[in-house]
Design brief:
The chain is α/β, with parallel strands linked by helices and 161 residues long. It contains 5 helices and 7 strands.
């Protein structure tokens, strides 16, 4: 029987836009795939765009995917979410995503992603950015591989830049 103890596995938040182009979608899918290959758990907002792509990559690689949903219906999760958790919190669910992770990877995104980056600072979580908000306190990375190396080598704590 599979060991279901997830407490010792890294939980990596993938944060990003609900809308994205093909290049960003492919990067997010690669990030998800690489999280699964490292036996990490992917947590995200569970919807479309970057979230869907990351979940797809992890799911197809046998990884665990958790979607923290803004509404009250599990059915609103993308098809690649294994565990859908509806919150009814709207955008405030972003705080749940970040508080639950060990570190975060921001890919593309708009103001919702920026709010999640701000939660990283508030909750003392390390965050790297891949084609996203390069602001003080984040660590820019150039590829999905670099993002994964960052995420798995940083525990909670401010980003080093």
């Amino acid at each position: 029987m599979e060991n279901l103890n997830f407490k010792d596995r890294k939980i990596i938040a993938v944060i990003g836009g609900r809308d994205c182009g093909e290049e960003i979608y492919n990067q997010a899918e690669d990030v998800g795939r690489l999280i699964a290959r490292r036996n990490g758990i992917l947590i995200c907002g569970g919807r479309t765009g970057v979230m869907e792509a990351a979940c797809k990559g992890a799911y197809k690689t046998g990884g665990m995917t958790i979607g923290i949903l803004p509404g009250s219906s599990k059915q609103k999760a993308n098809q690649w979410v294994k565990l859908a958790l509806p919150t009814g919190l709207g955008p405030a669910r972003n705080s749940v995503i970040i508080n639950s992770c060990d570190s975060a990877i921001a890919i593309d995104g708009n103001y919702g992603t920026l709010s999640e980056i701000a939660y990283c600072f508030q909750f003392n979580k390390s965050v790297c950015v891949l084609n996203s908000w390069e602001i003080e306190g984040t660590t820019p990375v150039a590829s999905p591989k670099e993002a994964i190396e960052f995420a798995f080598s940083h525990e909670s704590g401010p980003s080093q830049h």
